[in-house]
Write a structure and sequence with these properties.
Elements: E1 3-8, H1 13-24, E2 31-37, E3 41-47, H2 50-56, E4 65-71, E5 86-87, E6 93-98, H3 104-113, H4 124-137, H5 142-151, E7 157-163, E8 170-175, E9 180-183, E10 188-191, E11 203-206, E12 211-216, E13 219-224, E14 229-230, E15 235-236, H6 252-258, H7 260-268, E16 272-273, E17 278-279, H8 288-293, E18 296-301, H9 303-320, E19 323-328, H10 329-332, E20 344-349, H11 355-366, E21 370-375, H12 381-385, E22 388-391, H13 404-424, H14 429-451, H15 457-463, E23 468-473, H16 477-492, E24 495-500, E25 517-522, H17 528-540, E26 544-550, H18 554-559, E27 562-566, H19 574-592
The structure holds 5-amino-5-deoxy-1-O-phosphono-D-mannitol.
């Protein structure tokens, strides 16, 4: 969470930083700030979004060095004072930070006893004063002072520091929060993700945990915290500017919903061969035998990625006949860890930076499990730390509400499950051929849904001000119900719950009255009869049925106040289609309610704190 951008070079630093912060704003948007070196340090910061910060900057600033930050508040409410950058007591040092300094209280007390005064409620200000304090005793070596100060920090950080004694450098360091260096021609950038640097360079160096870098406009030196020099690999970025712009859409989420047919085609390209009924997954080819031998698979993820994990559970169990446990990554560490050798863990993450998912991955690896990644962001920490994996290739997802990443994750899990089933011999050739051919048709079926998306306008308008929604699904419809409810609550702030349809009778049915829209995912064929009974139960209590049906399901259509049909497909692939109308419904409702769809309150795209 929080976006960090820094620049050193020949351009006006504030221009590059503001542009970069706008690209990173999805990481947090409570407040924003910059520190520019213009002969002396100049700090501008404010509560609110980057456009507000931009209005505070003067047109005539000529700084060529600076750092910036867009915040998702952890310690201290979003206000001007708590905004980053934070400074040392003598005003010579400014830093921006992403992460949490867990021992900030004890450090603060020590620093206060030494005469430092604190102005903010943040954990970050402690680090600025701590570095100053250490530097006052090691005045011959600023980098060493930063290393010493950081070694006293418990918690996580991605940090960028400038100091007016060293106007030609930025120091960055990382532990637990992502940071990369964009290597340009006589200029360097730093950022917490690549979208902020893609316009200027395609050469990036990813910092790893425990590393610190001193960055000048024509050079960067990377060391460990205990000062061993490192040679880092330079990676080539495959990220185009068009991919990270709205391209005529009002919101990224809208663009990303409509990109799904292309995203899924990209995900399938080179992997699926419908003619020969084969699947090629280069990223896991060397571990397939190990997967086949595993007695169980554990899937760990958060949020939407956890929902795709549940689809994965159904897929792996039904096709590859392997038992699957789907865990909230955040909860795994509090359980007796029984994951170890012989187990295979699949971690799913769009960003590849989610702190809890990363922690689950590390714990499983430490215990000897094989850990595979299903990740979207190429080069992200999770992608780099897993033993093997399959990229989603959905392209950058910028709207906070995940859409194309969900369908991309489900597609990858589908490919993996069919492939594993083929390796294990748990699927007949006939069935595998049929599934592979149908998977290849999914992008065009998605197109058909998107073409008639305006059919959802009326129901969106009718229920935009409902206080609650219930989503019900069975089998493959259940994770879709969870995902539909999450989409609605996160962008429109309407309370919504997703339930397995049969669970309704065990509690939620008490909520149903004539005010309650109940979205029923009736997209799987083998559960239809039972879903019909559940719909009748809702209708008997005057609930308002909105159904997502397979084309031709007149029985459910006739029982519904509103229904939207998706093309028929194999049960296993139904989530890839039924989720799309739910994404659109949420989007329409959020727009009707005047919500900031891409940057919903309190949320951030990438949750890099635990
Ligand atoms: O980047 P990740 O997939 O690891 O992120 C996990 C969740 O934070 C994410 O899916 C979140 O729930 C989204 N806002 C949902 O739309």
């Amino acid at each position: 969470m929080c976006g960090i951008v820094g620049y050193i070079g020949e351009k006006r630093a504030s221009d590059v930083i503001i542009k970069g912060l706008k690209r990173l704003e999805y990481r947090g948007y409570d407040s924003a700030g910059v520190a520019l070196f213009n002969g002396e340090l100049e700090i501008k910061k404010c509560k609110g979004k980057v456009v507000k910060l931009e209005s505070l900057l003067t047109k005539d600033d000529q700084a060529r060095v600076g750092i910036g930050h867009t915040r998702w508040a952890t310690h201290g409410e979003p206000n001007d004072i708590n905004s980053h950058p934070h400074t040392s007591s003598n005003g010579k040092l400014a830093l921006v930070h992403n992460g949490i300094i867990e021992n900030y209280n004890s450090l603060k007390k020590i620093l206060e006893s030494k005469g430092h005064t604190f102005y903010s409620q943040t954990d970050t200000e402690v680090l600025a004063k701590l570095i100053e304090d250490v530097y006052s005793k090691n005045s011959d070596d600023f980098k060493k002072s930063v290393q010493i100060a950081l070694s006293q920090i418990e918690g996580t950080y991605g940090v960028a520091i400038i100091h007016s004694d060293f106007p030609d450098q930025i120091i960055v360091a990382r532990k637990g929060s992502p940071l990369l260096i964009g290597v340009g021609d006589n200029e360097m950038l730093i950022a917490s993700d690549a979208s902020a640097v893609a316009e200027y360079t395609d050469q990036v160096v990813y910092l790893d945990d425990g590393e610190i870098a001193v960055i000048k406009k024509d050079d960067y030196q990377v060391h460990t915290l205990d000062d061993n020099s490192l040679i880092k690999e330079v990676h080539e970025l495959a990220l185009s500017i068009e991919e990270i712009e709205k391209g005529g859409y009002e919101f990224f989420m809208h663009k990303e919903i409509f990109e799904q047919p292309k995203a899924i085609s990209d995900c399938l390209r080179g992997r699926l061969d419908p003619e020969n009924g084969t699947i090629t997954l280069g990223g896991i080819k060397d571990v397939l035998e190990k997967m086949a031998d595993a007695k169980r698979l554990i899937i760990a993820a958060c949020g939407t990625s956890w929902h795709s994990g549940i689809v994965g559970e159904y897929l792996f169990e039904s096709l590859a006949k392997v038992s699957v446990e789907v865990e909230y990554a955040s909860e795994l560490r509090y359980k007796e860890s029984l994951i170890g050798e012989g187990d295979v863990m699949i971690v799913i993450s769009q960003s590849g930076e989610t702190a809890d998912t990363l922690a689950a991955l590390r714990q499983a690896k430490e215990n000897g499990a094989l850990v595979l990644g299903v990740v979207n962001v190429v080069g992200s920490t999770i992608a780099r730390e897993t033993d093997a994996g399959v990229y989603i290739h959905a392209g950058p997802e910028i709207g906070v509400a995940s859409t194309k990443a969900f369908t991309g994750q489900v597609t990858v899990l589908t490919l993996m499950a069919i492939k594993l089933a083929q390796v294990k011999g748990t699927i007949s050739k006939e069935k595998a051929d049929r599934l592979i051919k149908e998977l290849n048709r999914i992008p065009s079926k998605m197109e058909k849904i998107l073409e008639k998306s305006s059919e959802l306008d009326a129901v969106s308008n009718l229920f935009s001000y409902a206080p609650n929604f219930l989503y019900l699904g069975r089998s493959f419809g259940f994770p879709v119900a969870l995902e539909g409810a999450l989409k609605l609550k996160e962008i429109s702030y309407i309370h919504a719950e997703g339930y397995p349809a049969a669970e309704m009778k065990h509690g939620p049915i008490a909520l149903i009255d004539e005010m309650m829209p109940v979205v029923v995912i009736a997209g799987t064929n083998h559960t239809n009869d039972k879903m019909v009974s559940n719909i009748e139960e809702v209708r008997a209590r005057k609930g308002r049925i909105i159904s997502i049906i397979t084309e031709g399901n007149e029985e459910v259509e006739n029982l519904s106040e509103f229904s939207f049909s998706v093309p028929d497909t194999e049960d296993e692939f139904s989530p890839l289609l039924t989720v799309i109308p739910l994404q659109i419904l949420s989007y329409n409702i959020a727009v009707n309610r005047g919500c900031d769809v891409d940057q919903p309150r309190n949320l951030a795209k990438s949750v890099t704190v635990e």
